[in-house]
Amino acid sequence: MEFFETVKSRYSYRKKLDPSTPSDEDLRKIVQAGLDAPSGKNAQTTGFIIIRDPETVSKINAMPGGSTAMSTAPAFIAAHVSCAPEKIFLDYDFEIEDCAAAVAYILLAAADLGYASVWVDGWLRTDNRAADISRMCGLGHDRVVRIIIPIGRPLEKHPRCEKMSFDERVRII
User: Fold this and answer.
1) Where would I find the Nitroreductase domain in this sequence (predicted)?
2) Sign of the CA dihedral 67, 69, 74, 76?
3) Domains and CATH numbers, the chain
């Protein structure tokens, strides 16, 4: 798919996903896109976990309150960050920004390969889910899952939500 076509057609998919697990090759390609994303001072602070172990996937699927995609995903990609980020420029760290850039690249790579996905953040931050999933994935106490992405082939197609026009959101001076 051509880049701008991928950007324009990608949307957050929260519906039922096909139960077949994405190939290791595709999951590696998708995560490599996240690894290739820019990061503040090239610190490369975001780590990733490809979750495809059926037992771990089932435990995450069973966690309450998530979208249908969360409860039916055959695989997940978890982005994790430091609990105590290092200040790398003056008194600033860029862990959240680095993570966001990497996840955006991952979402675009997944769409380009025909997978559906959604950036899950708010759900993860409630009811201790981030800590629970971090433990399931074997992260130490110094790292935490910041974003989790259910990934699979979509079983339904629907149009992307309408976006506001360029002129409504952009000012040229």
Assistant:
1) 7-153
2) negative
3) 22-155 (3.40.109.10)
pLDDT at 132: 97
Q: How many C-beta neighbours within 10 Å does residue 8 have? A: 11
Q: Are strands 75-82 and 143-152 parallel, antiparallel or unpaired?
A: antiparallel
Angle at 136 between CA 109 and CA 54, to 5 degrees: 65
The DSSP code sequence of 115-164 is -EE--B-HHHHSTTHHHHHHHHTT--TTEEEEEEEEEE-BSS--PPPPPP
DSSP 3-state of 9: helix
Q: How many residues does the chain have?
A: 173
The tens digit of pLDDT for each residue in 50-65 reads 999 999 999 999 999 9
